[in-house]
Amino acid sequence: MSSKKVEVIVTLKDLQEVLVRDDEEKIKDDGRWPLLIDETDQVATFFRHTNTNYVNMANPSQMEPEKLRMALLGAVRYGKPLVLDLMGCDILHIVKERVNSIHEGLWDWILDKTLVTEEKFTKLIKEDDGPEYDERQFWANMDEFKLWILTSAEPEPALLKTFYIIRVKPVI
Fold first, then answer.
1. Contact indicator for 124, 103 with CB cutoff of 8 Å
2. Nearest CA to 124 among 113, 115, 137, 112?
3. Rounded Cα–Cα distance for residues 140 and 79 (Å)
4. What is the distance between the alpha carbons of residues 2 and 8, in angstroms, rounded to a whole number?
5. Does an H or E element contain 27, and which?
6. DSSP string, 83-134
7. Which residue, 19, 37, 20, is CA-closest to 170?
8. What local confidence, expressed as pLDDT, does residue 6 receive?
9. Eight-class DSSP state of 61
10. Confidence of residue 3 (pLDDT cuts 50, 70, 90)
11. Per-residue pLDDT averaged across 129-138, rounded?
């Protein structure tokens, strides 16, 4: 996993190719999850209309641990991106706390991509989640799980090394 500062600049129309399909496998090869800096205020709408589990992290009801757990499990189970929209707020430290309140160390499991191993993702499954979330149902798609973090604010410098930065600029 890379720790170097990378920043890719794209337009909204390029997002499908660069992020969703990762045509050149730059994100995959880098090893870090993307942090998107949205200068268009349109990326959230794009994500809500694609096959993602989108979570508005500034909405207190969506930040409830049980709702976060189910959004995460669903993304892993169905091999979809989990989009955490920070809504331009400096709340990533709160997001980390909420995620870790689901299970100690969960945030690190997500960042280091070890969540999608049997001994880790199964710790999130509860007996009353139903047959759809039986651990045997996960194996077909869980390698497709992704984490995308979205913000419209300039991230703190430490995050520039933690995440693969994609800056979405308006078409001029």
1. yes
2. 115
3. 8
4. 15
5. helix 26-30
6. EEE-TT-S-HHHHHHHHHHHSTTHHHHHHTT-TTSHHHHGGG--GGG-GGG-
7. 37
8. 77
9. T
10. low
11. 92
Edge-first strand listing for the sheet containing 164-169 = 7-11, 164-169, 34-38, 146-151, 81-85, 53-56
Q: What are phi and psi of 120, to 5 degrees?
A: -105, -55
- Scan for tokens 């997500």, then name that residue: 110
The kind and range of the H/E element at 77 are helix 65-78
Neighbours of 157 (CB within 10 A): 8
Helix axes 65-78, 92-102, angle to 10 degrees: 80
What would the two tokens of residue 25 be?
Answer: 């496998």
Write the CB contacts of 70 (distance below 8 Å, at least 6 apart in sequence). Answer: 129
Q: Give 122's contacts (C-beta < 8 A, 6+ positions apart).
A: 135
Distance, C-alpha 138 to centroid of its chain:
18
